[in-house]
Amino acid sequence: MKKLEDLVQGHEVIDIRSAFYYLSRYLKQADYFTEYEKDFFEDDYQSAPSDIAKDLTFSLIKFIEESAGKKAEEFDDEEYIKWMDIINAVESNLDPEPSDVVKRSADQVIDELFFPELGKNNE
Amino acid sequence: MSLKDISHPILYSAMTTLAYNINKKYYEDKHYMWCTPYFGSDFDSPHFTVPPSSSPVEIYNTLKKEVEGADHHNTKIDLNRRGIRKGASIMLKLGKITQDAHDEIVYISKNAKDQHFRPLLCVIARLEAVPYYQKVDVKDRANPLSHEYILSDLPQSAFDIIRIG
Fold it and tell me: Record's superkingdom (chain B) (predicted)?
């Protein structure tokens, strides 16, 4: 049986990640598209998705809605969460294992994360 | 409607503590944020043209609930983790960060605890935001009355951070 990850095989990680991001937006905002006329691909000029990412997003939407037998706007909370969990499982495994140097550096950043002071000029 | 054409003096946005920290450390303290002139009060008003899920106070409260463990699904936090990874891949492609920095951000997005997604509310003077607003052309179907704006590379000097609740 075809799975979500089969659809993204052969694509570049940047396009896969982008597609999953906009797919998530689509699922999250499915209720509002007609009412608010939102474009779920809307983004700033730097982040705009490639045509490949857009096509991939539409493929993923089609797969999910055909698997579910309904449009995303008809999903109940349980279905929405189920698909978001599946997306998460695939998307979070796109990356190779980072090096020990990267891990150590990143762990230090996590340890040093801070909650900013209120107001401006948090130097 | 363009950001310079609306009359509202203030814009609001909700951001996570983790995103704030990543922007500060890796992106020269320049921030990407969705903002709206509506803090979020009367969803039934004909003047309120953003969906509830785009209301800064709704986003803030949803994140707060997930951080405090009241919501077992944490879909908003997971979406944020994914958004951070997408942002990192874009920045790498643009040459604004190195591969190592990208890999660190990806690792951080996966290993940061839920508490690191504690929400922040950002308050921006509209006039200070105008130079950082550059919208991608959207298809004709997009609502011309929509009051959601994306700001790119907004310096931290351009906004205040407040806490509510």
Answer: Bacteria
CA dihedral defined by B139, B142, B146, B147, rounded to 10 degrees? Answer: -30
Closest-CA residue of A relative to B119 is A115
Out of B105, B142, B160, name the one closest to residue A37 (CB): B142
Give the helix/strand (H/E) hosting A79.
helix A77-91
* Cα separation, B62 vs B119, whole angstroms: 9
What sign does the CA torsion over B162, B97, B116, B43 have? positive
Give pLDDT tens digits for B31-52. 999 998 887 756 565 555 566 6
Q: Report the C-alpha gap between B154 and B29 in whole angstroms.
A: 8
Q: Do B90 and A46 touch (CB under 8 A)?
A: yes
Instruction: Give me the number of domains chain B comprises.
Output: 1
Residues of B in contact with A48 (CB under 8 A): 136
Separation in Å, CA of A51 to nearest CA in chain B: 14
Instruction: Provide the whole-model pTM.
Output: 0.89
Q: Which domain holds residue B57?
A: 3-162
Give the C-alpha separation, A47 to B79, whole Å. 16
Mean pLDDT in residue range A26-43: 78
